[in-house]
Amino acid sequence: MNIDQLFEQSLQLLGLGMGSVFVILTLLIGIISVISKLVPEEKFVDPSGKAPAPASLAENTQHIAAIQAAVHQFKKQ
Q1: What confidence tens digit (pLDDT) does each residue in 7-16 have?
Q2: Structural domain includes residue 20
């Protein structure tokens, strides 16, 4: 085999490999998009029917202060 035949064979293998990967990925994207349209999204329904109460501003500031103190303590070490 001379270099021209080897080069031609390598290009054929390159085309076959890249082509098969392209086809498989395209099919995968198509299958996923079809399935996502067929299967509806699940929505979480709270059985109690009540929305969670928002945390008060005082609790949030206490949490922020505690986190800041912990970070400051960690950086000191």
Answers
A1: 999 999 999 9
A2: yes
> Rounded CA gap, 64 and 55, in Å?
13
- Is the pTM above the cut of 0.70? no
The alpha carbons of the chain give a radius of gyration, in whole angstroms, of 29
CA distance 25 to 6: 28
User: CA neighbours within 13 Å on the CB side: how many for 25?
Assistant: 6
> In angstroms, rounded to a whole number, what is the distance separating the alpha carbons of residues 75 and 62?
20
Q: How far apart are CA 33 and CA 56, in angstroms?
A: 42
- Domain of 17 in residue numbering reads as 1-39
- ∠ CA(15), CA(21), CA(26), 5° rounding? 120
